Amino acid sequence: ILNYIAGKYNLYGKDLKERALIDMYTEGTLDLMDIIMLWAIETPENKQKQLSNIEQKAKERFLPVFEKGLANSDFLVGNQLSRADVHLLEATLTLQEILPTILSTFPKIQAFQERMKALPRISKFLQPGSARKPP
Questions:
Q1: Model pLDDT for residues 119-130, shown as the tens digit of each residue
Q2: Which residues, other chains included, contact 72 with Cβ-Cβ below 8 Å and sequence gap of 6+?
Q3: 10: left (phi over 0), alpha (psi -120 to 50) or beta
Q4: Number of DSSP helices (H) and strands (E) in the chain, helices first
Q5: The whole model's pTM is what?
Q6: Which domain holds residue 64?
C-alpha cells in the first residue's frame, strides 16, 4: 500500500535505480523503528539496557548511513521528496523522543529534519492535537 501511495503521489523516484535506493533507505528506517518498538514493550528491568542498545545501533549503524545519504542533497534520493524521506523523519523524531541528544553529531540529519518539519503538511501534522501520537 505504501508503494502504491508513493507511486501515485510521485514519492517513489523517477526510475528503477531511484526506487531501489528509496527501498533501501526505507527498509533501514523500518529496521530502526523495529528495535524502538521492541523497547516500548520491554519489561522495566530491561528497558535501560535496551535503550543503550538502541543508542549504540543508531549511532554506529543507522544514522551514519543516512548522514552520508544527505551529504550532497536535501533529500536521501535524487533532488525531490520521496517516501524514504518521510520514513527518516518519523524515525528520527521517534529517536529524539527517547534519546533527546541522539542527533547532536549528525548535522546533515538535523538540517534535513528542520527542512522536513517546515513543509506545510508535515508542519500541520506535527502540531499539538494532530493525528501523530508519541510511542
A1: 999 999 888 877
A2: none
A3: left
A4: 7, 0
A5: 0.90
A6: 1-126
